[in-house]
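Suppose you are handed only these lines of text.
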Amino acid sequence: MRTPYPLPRTGISVDAHAFATDEECALDPAGMVPLWLAGLHWPGERGLSGHSDGDVVAHAAAEALFSAAGCGDLGSNFGVDRPDMAGAAGVRVLSEAAEIVILSGFDPGNIAVQLIGQRPRFAPRREEAERILSKAAGCPVTVSATTSDRLGFTGRAEGLAAVATALVVPAP
Ligand SMILES: Nc1ccn([C@@H]2O[C@H](COP(=O)(O)O)[C@@H](O)[C@H]2O)c(=O)n1
Ligand SMILES: C[C@@]1(CO)OP(=O)(O)OP(=O)(O)OC[C@H]1O
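From them, the structure of the protein bound to L45E5XJ5 can be written out as follows.
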């Protein structure tokens, strides 16, 4: 369905990944699965399970772009059946998502993401994360964080979640 005149379009996404188990960490050459979150490596923090690097912030940002442009979702664009996506970096997922959205006739306007989790403490690295994600997406990406007050799976530190919204505009 088309609007009679071009409108910006909003999108939404939620992503969640469990922290890697002790068994998964034991298999890693470093003895611990590294945490990649919001495009950044977090030394000393336990990583996330997933087919890719499990970067919930980058994934939610990418899928919000797909949602806004009507390009399906993360799974329909980057399925776990794709061997080349095994261990894929979140910034790669986000930059490829932005390319797909542009090819479909939309320009990314902005993306807002909120990380939900007890740790890592995100705020001290917010600007660094926003810089790298904005570069990957080709539009401003802002990231906030909340703990969920120790409630739920994020509160029990079983994993991390992120929710994102995005705005895209029809290319002129
Ligand atoms: N992983 C996190 C979670 C939160 N923050 C910062 O703390 C502030 C207060 O957290 P609440 O759970 O009480 O909302 C929040 O606004 C963030 O600035 C963080 O840095 N990392
Ligand atoms: C990114 C993909 C593909 O490698 O793998 P996961 O790391 O499992 O991440 P998820 O957020 O579940 O999205 C599905 C897949 O598209």
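What can we learn from it? The beta strands are 9-18, 34-37, 40-46, 106-116, 141-146, 159-170. DSSP finds six helices and six strands in the chain.
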